[in-house]
Amino acid sequence: MSELLRQHIEKIVLLTDAEFAHILSHFVSKKFKKHQFVVQEGQVVAHDFFILSGCLKSYSTDVNGKEHIIQFGMPDWWITDYQAYYGQSVATMNIDCIEPSELLCLSYANREKLCAEYHKIEHFFRKKTNKRNVALQQRILSLLSSTAQERYDQLLQQYPELFQKVPKHLIASYLGVTRETLSRFRQSDK
Amino acid sequence: MSELLRQHIEKIVLLTDAEFAHILSHFVSKKFKKHQFVVQEGQVVAHDFFILSGCLKSYSTDVNGKEHIIQFGMPDWWITDYQAYYGQSVATMNIDCIEPSELLCLSYANREKLCAEYHKIEHFFRKKTNKRNVALQQRILSLLSSTAQERYDQLLQQYPELFQKVPKHLIASYLGVTRETLSRFRQSDK
């Protein structure tokens, strides 16, 4: 299963078997049940999570108790509350499992240690963080200036696999529309 | 003036005089007039920009021609369209100068070269990108689940200097409110 992490890293930098074994020894593998919290608002965020299997969502809750989905997490992706993880502070969002999920957990100290030990791992994480920047920028642009229909089309184009895994009411919440509006989009799709 | 870049880098990693001179030789200094475009939608984004002086804004335009401000840029900050810069593709936003601005321009090839040459510069850019991630995450959380009054308070708390430099109608656009609503916030502030 941890082969997925190696393939993921090796899309950017190549590793010897010994290097990968050393890197992997800095992760802890953990299984989470459906609906289980991985990150909880108000608690310290100790880890970044590489997703081996399952499906997750991160979301914030507004003053009226309404949930707003920030992102989904799928196998081969990373997820955490990065503001809290980088600052080693408490979470301002929740992350929980839409499906049972197996995650490789990397502490902040171990991430920094690996980056200091290997220039190429520092390079790997810089490149991954660049990609996250792009995804976050796209999310902001989409929230600021796209219609719900455009946001739906973008999501379907970028992450078609999400539509297989994620319940419709969560897709609707991510897009900021009602389920009724979402089903109109889906119909216009056929 | 380029001392500002050295101080900026040395908040994260220390440099010798020779190292800084070598790094600086990879930047091109350029002056921009008020209202001049630094990045223009549809054009290739060749550079990331370190701001020595002035004030900038990045924004996208929706189908109705309405401008939505993504971020502001102040001295000691970086600004570009990162999606286009990292992908060496065309911009999906505009960046222009609110005030005359002096920028240090770093091409993508030079950034990668410096990162490959110096592990500590790779470290510096990873850390800067982490910080940008946090800022982008905050912007998303704020767009998803904060009221306009909360967004105003957050902006004032984080970047008080913006309120000195940036015209009120641009602050209103950033917050997604009318100028009239903004002046009510400002009054309740006194």
Automatic annotation (TrEMBL), chains A, B:
Superkingdom per UniProt: Bacteria
Domain Cyclic nucleotide-binding: residue ranges: 30-118
Annotated TM spans: none
Entry-linked InterPro entries: cNMP-bd_dom, cNMP-bd_dom_sf, RmlC-like_jellyroll
Name under which the protein is recorded: Crp/Fnr family transcriptional regulator
Lineage: Bacteria, Pseudomonadati, Bacteroidota, Cytophagia, Cytophagales
